[in-house]
């Protein structure tokens, strides 16, 4: 452990996550600084989603230690975390504001903030259409808005660009870079790393449950 | 937000969602009607006999309707992985449980409200004992099924064959409650015995298991 | 460990053999047990019926305690013990449920009495613990032991309710079956206790074996899961 703990967003040591005979994470180690945009790459089954879910406190490691935002009490860290997945984490039959108002309530946040974040992702807060009828690009943006409700210092995004049209995707990529510039830490799992090629601080390469390489540019890490 | 506020918000959200996708409600109501009709064809007793077995028939019918409703409980939270959004928030687990349980209670009560007049009509039922006692019996019995049912539906989120897992877990555990509901109802209908012991049993059952559910729900929710 | 196991096995064998002899030997044989007057020779199945029931209860009690210990301490050994005792408890329950009707039919003319508190409680118990085992098998969670422990607690909480509800049901529906309780000839008591001791000993032996087996199996799975560490490292 090099820096003072307050510099690290996430510190993982010896993380093992086992499902019966299968290990999704095999003694994964890594230290990640605050205020950086990390792109996580790897084949399916490499353990990327598992890692993100553990950092988010949604899943517990079988063994090993992890500390997020300075604490190993992941339930405490969750107040500072925003989580986004390929699934929208929204109710299809509610419209945008209804969705966000509900989730904001869970954090004790008011509706004004809901309108703010919806506008921040370039969507119309007054849109009555239920989220289930959005295009994939709009849905992912609304999901990002939801993740931003609590003004998180750590954002975990699992394949945010999947099935999203190119324009929405590059707009979202730009937004992610802005969020990093605001001092937040971001972990982005994606199969389309080119979108973040210029803005990412580091590329994390995962294979079979471990981190096998960390590179500052996309090209340097290509096997 | 406070515990109660979150419970209310979640319950409100669920009711709004149920209302918007009306096909689920309509299908359930129709299913409830079907169950009563099937029973009336399968069991065609005289008025005297029917008073003896109606207690059992009604509660078995309610049980089946409840299971179908309960299986839906968490389905909405699995779509789009929405449950993750709740789990990642600082909101505690119990308001979610209570909101779901209360929602189910309301829903199953509506179904019972539909099925009961039909049963009364088909079987020419009339209470020979104190009829008003049927209300607390229905309430306590329904809560007994719903509180455990909601909890086990959450457990079955973590299993294969979810739809069969729920009744598999619910039925054995509910045997005492079922005995209570059926015998209490029969006691009132036939007027031959007092339902008091059974009502007391149901109260104790409800208290014990509601407490157990509230103490252990968080553990189950986080057991990914 | 090995020696303790062997001793237990021998003791179990001796107790079972002796218990068997005492259960079947009539009074005219040395150390025999009197035949029950009203029910006749068939009554002797009672020695296995009752011993199984009490053994099952002991096993479920252990399951309850180890489930709580597991939930509090997350000690894997407690979980393995819970699993082993549940499996064996289900088997002993099944013995009770099978010997019950075999006994009831020739004596009272019916296979099953809905007001018989012991048989019906055992049936409910059997159902609860079978569903415990099904839950463990069907679970897709990585924390199956936690979920199983929660279920075990619910099951154990239900047990007193099961007894009470059936007991009250019986008082309202008097049954033709005379409950086997109350006075028992002291020589019969000795046979019951010897057979119970034999079954407890057997239960201990089998649980111990099952425990060791499960423990070893889990270690193998863990090793398999981490195996490609060597292949994956660079």
Give descriptors for this structure.
heterotrimer; A: 223 residues; alpha/beta; Rossmann fold; 6-stranded mixed β-sheet; 3-stranded antiparallel β-sheet; 7 helices; globular; B: 224 residues; mainly alpha
Structural commentary:
- The complex is a heterotrimer of chains A (223), B (224) and C (234).
- Chain A is an alpha/beta fold and 223 residues long.
- Chain A has helices spanning 48-55, 74-77, 96-107, 111-120, 136-148, 166-181, 218-221; strands at residues 8-19, 22-33, 37-41, 63-68, 81-84, 154-158, 185-189, 202-207, 210-215.
- Chain A has one domain (5-221): 3-Layer(aba) Sandwich (Rossmann fold), CATH 3.40.50.300.
- Chain A has a six-stranded mixed beta sheet, with helices on both faces. In chain A, strands 2-1-4 form a three-stranded antiparallel beta sheet, covered by helices on one side.
- The longest helix of chain A is centred in the C-terminal third of the chain and has 16 residues, at 166-181.
- Chain A is globular and about 45 Å long.
- The model of chain A has no long low-confidence stretch (mean pLDDT 91).
- Chain B has one domain.
- Chain B is 82% helix and 0% strand.
- Chain B contains nine helices and no strands.
- Chain B has helices at residues 3-20, 22-42, 47-72, 75-78, 82-88, 93-123, 134-155, 162-190, 196-221.
- Chain C has one domain (2-219).
- The radius of gyration of chain C is 21 Å and the shape is flat.
- In chain C, 38% of the residues are buried.
- The two termini of chain C are 42 Å apart.
- Chain B binds chain C through residues 148, 155, 158-161, 165, 168-169, 171-173, 175-177, 179-180, 183, 193, 197-198, 201, 204-205, 208-209, 212, 216, 219-220, 223-224, and chain C through 71, 124, 127-128, 130-131, 134-135, 138-143, 146-147, 150-151, 153-155, 157-158, 161-162, 164-166, 168-169, 172.
Record the SSE blueprint.
The complex is a heterotrimer of chains A (223), B (224) and C (234).
Chain A: E1 8-19, E2 22-33, E3 37-41, H1 48-55, E4 63-68, H2 74-77, E5 81-84, H3 96-107, H4 111-120, H5 136-148, E6 154-158, H6 166-181, E7 185-189, E8 202-207, E9 210-215, H7 218-221
Parallel strand pairs in A: 3-7, 3-8, 5-6, 6-7
Antiparallel strand pairs in A: 1-2, 1-4, 8-9
Helix pairs in contact in A: 3-4, 4-5
Chain B: H1 3-20, H2 22-42, H3 47-72, H4 75-78, H5 82-88, H6 93-123, H7 134-155, H8 162-190, H9 196-221
Chain C: H1 2-24, H2 46-73, H3 76-108, H4 117-138, H5 144-172, H6 186-226, H7 229-232
